[in-house]
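Reply to dn_fold:

You asked what the input looked like. This is it:
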Amino acid sequence: MARSFFQDNFESMIDNMIVGICFMEYKKGVMAPFYVNEGMFRMLGYSKAQGMKFLNKIEMNIIPEDLPIYQQGIEDVLKDDGAVEIEFRTVTGSGGLRWLHVRGNLYSREDDKYVIVAVVEDISERKSVEEELRQQAERLNILSEAEGGKILDYNVKTDVMIIKSSKDYDLSGEMIRQKYMEEFDGSLIYEDDIAYYKSIFRGLMTSPKHETIEFRTRRFDPDYTWYQLNLTSLLGPEGYVTRIVGRMINIHERKLKELDLLLRAEKDALTGLYNKGATQQLIENVIRESPKDAINALIIIDLDNFKEVNDLMGHAQGDQVLMDTAAALNEIFKGGDIVGRIGGDEFVVFMKNLNAISNADILANKIVRNVNYSFDYADRKIQVTCSVGVAIYPYHGTEYAELFKKADKAVYTAKANGKCGYRIYDAATTMVYHATRKKEEYNPQQGMAMNRSIEDLVMQVLFEDKVMESALKSAIELITGKFGFHRGYICGNDSLPVSQTVQFTAAGYETGKETKEHYELKKVVGEILYETYKGMSIIHDYDLSVSEMRDYFRSEGIKSMLYYPITSQGRFQGTIILEHHEDVQLEFKDTEMEELRSLMRVLEAHILQIGLMDRLQDFVTQIALFDNLDSYVYIVNADTYELSFINKKVLAATPEVKIGNICYKALQNRDKPCEKCILKSLKKDDPHCRCTEEMFNYSLRSWNRCSASWLECKEENRLALINCIDISEYFIG
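and this is what came back:
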């Protein structure tokens, strides 16, 4: 009985193993798989068809440096001296690298035909950890060999601190402290520095990063002495921080000079922040002593409409705005950062030792939110906001003057794009940053070489940024930078959730006309173009037949533009306009036009159906999956029958079908819902309900087997996913 059960379930058990099992036939130098378990395909991330194609051409997918290892492994297996184990790297379908560990045995041999059985394991993660440990060991070795100062080595697991002093100090040898953090002794650290010191250490214990702190201690000297401590936390093989190593340098003389600088009237009398001279001097000191791998950020904050408050409401009110701004900045930034007032309504912040650009991004966004004041004056409202520019050390410069110039240019761009916002200097950096945000530390060497599509970047920005105008502005910036446009606008009518015209202008192409009247003119232009072009079009100035449009193009300096109308249920709602201002023929390949059409569709979906993106937990991943299916995919609001999403296959086959259309009108050419509408078969109280129908799709002109299920089944929002496969040949047969 047990033997029969085992035989019946043997293949099922092999298929459910997490490792790969392969039976390969080797004959006359050719290796071909004839049995592969499901676990192999799951591990490699391929479908069965893709996985078999991969294995049939395995030698073409092995890194050239590792190919001799693979070939030697085959020779060793054919000798039939027992199991052979090898490790080599392969290239995945997406272009990434994967480490495989293969244990092979000769299963049988008949004449010149050999059967090899192999057990395959994905060891990419282990190899990554080994490489990180190797790099950590190198860093630790370099640190331990550094001359001068004191070397700190803290074991997080055992809570033991070892301090090694060099021969340059009177106190040499090792100092060992047991239970260092558990029984923390702050008596030898200056009282004002204790909390800061402990918070830095606790932060290092949670994740691998670099920190530099300055504090006062009398552990090694009779009196309190200033020390600079450069610390690095290291991951252990378990995946969490196990050690913190660092170098401690006496900076007492330099710090006394800095304090002397502060004592010599370095503070701004009104706000209590550093004044212009002291701010620059302190920042230059930090830059001069920054490690090569440090990331710092110089941030300029310029108040919008401050002059209006000062002139109309008086200097007392203006002074209060400046003091409130200083208080807001002191609340946002930690004690180690430099905050100064360098002009009438201009402030500077220098953030030290960032883990990633996302830190500067988050805090710049926080400045924009917090530095925002509203005043009522003579039956009108005066709004004081701020424009923020960010430059990153060392990517945008390694000198104060260079960083300041670029941060100031970023401020100008923020003001030219509607004020009350922030910019990280230059579009390319912003694009790379958005590509890596919340994923890993910014790496300028990888930068633009990252294998990510513009559509993926745009969808990630739209998904992560919950402020609609900010998300759309970033998306427009990415698209204009990618395709070489100079200005981009999204203009909506009053029914759209966009509060005003969203725009991005590349540096050097600012109009100086950013007024409400100019925004209204953009809307009118969009409506006129809709009457002529209806759908997405590339428009050249010499193609225009309407004199009003020719005059408009000339006055704005536009040579050509991409025009995309936003429509819902067949009604015009607004426009997306990308302008090109150079006197050259604007041309795109078919693939680029398809990419632009897809991007416009994504923006349109985000504007018309913003709720959909908020409600999907992993929208970017799901939409990428739907978009690349080899079937026709629709997402429909089951209550309103509106199309919330259509995938690329639908768009290619029926370009006239758009998001926002009523499904029975767009797909079936009907004035009311179909009698046998598949949506009616979905039970509204069963989120797992699935229905299948065979029906004729008039827009596709084909018979389809349609499978419907709930993507989201809530009373306030019911979204159905309909997946359609063309069965015309089968149905007619």
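The domain at 127-255 is CATH 3.30.450.20 (Beta-Lactamase).
Hope that clears it up.
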